[in-house]
Design goal:
CATH topology: Rossmann fold
Number of strands: 8
Helix content: 25-40%
Number of domains: 1
Number of helices: 8
Distance between the termini: 31 Å
Strand order of the largest sheet: 5-4-1-6-7-8
Shape: globular
CATH architecture: 3-Layer(aba) Sandwich
Order of helices and strands: HEEEHEHEHEHEHEHH
Structural class: alpha/beta
Strand content: 5-15%
Oligomer: single chain
């Protein structure tokens, strides 16, 4: 994390919940429909892989997305995302409800979104992020711009930052490389 500013690292240390948009963050923003109207999306396995480690260290995950898609619901359930809200027009209201329900402060939440409808949350959370290909107005209003583009490991990159800043990454690697179970 050599190239991350001390201010961003300090914000990342406080995170207890990571919330993310889906289209343009977990996916590249594309939607494919077949002739029968079936919807398809492509997700990056690296984003899914890190969620179990967030859970291990009691960092919650959530989705607030503007679209209502069964494909996304299926992915959220598969990953055991702590909560997911679909078809949301007013994301900031849901964000406030989540904070209230979980008893968290804004400073304890990271949010990653890629488009202007994410701005109300992005400017009101502890650590805000957008993908490398996020909207220019979003890039101007976030703490962190990932190297990854949407659908190419954005959540993984932000999660790695949070886990590393909180001192958990060394433990993850140690657990994975120990020969105790061999």
């Amino acid at each position: 994390m050599k190239d991350i500013s001390p201010e961003i690292l300090e914000k990342a240390k406080q995170i207890k919940l990571i919330i993310f948009d889906v289209d343009g963050v977990l996916t590249d923003g594309g939607i494919i429909y077949d002739n029968a109207g079936q919807e398809y999306k492509r997700f990056n396995v690296k984003d899914g892989q890190i969620i179990k480690y967030l859970r291990k260290f009691n960092i919650l995950t959530g989705v607030i997305t503007g679209r209502d898609s069964q494909v996304v619901r299926n992915r959220c359930n598969e990953l055991r995302i702590d909560f997911h809200h679909h078809g949301i027009e007013n994301k900031i209201e849901v964000f406030k409800e989540v904070l209230n329900k979980l008893g968290l402060t804004k400073g304890q939440v990271a949010y990653v979104g890629d488009d202007i409808n994410d701005l109300p949350i992005l400017v009101n959370c502890g650590l805000s992020a957008t993908p490398a290909d996020g909207h220019h107005a979003v890039k101007e209003n976030v703490d962190y711009i990932t190297r990854a583009e949407g659908g190419k490991g954005v959540l993984r990159e932000l999660s790695d930052l949070v886990l590393d800043s909180q001192g958990h990454y060394d433990q993850i690697i140690k657990d994975l490389t120990s020969n105790e179970d061999f």
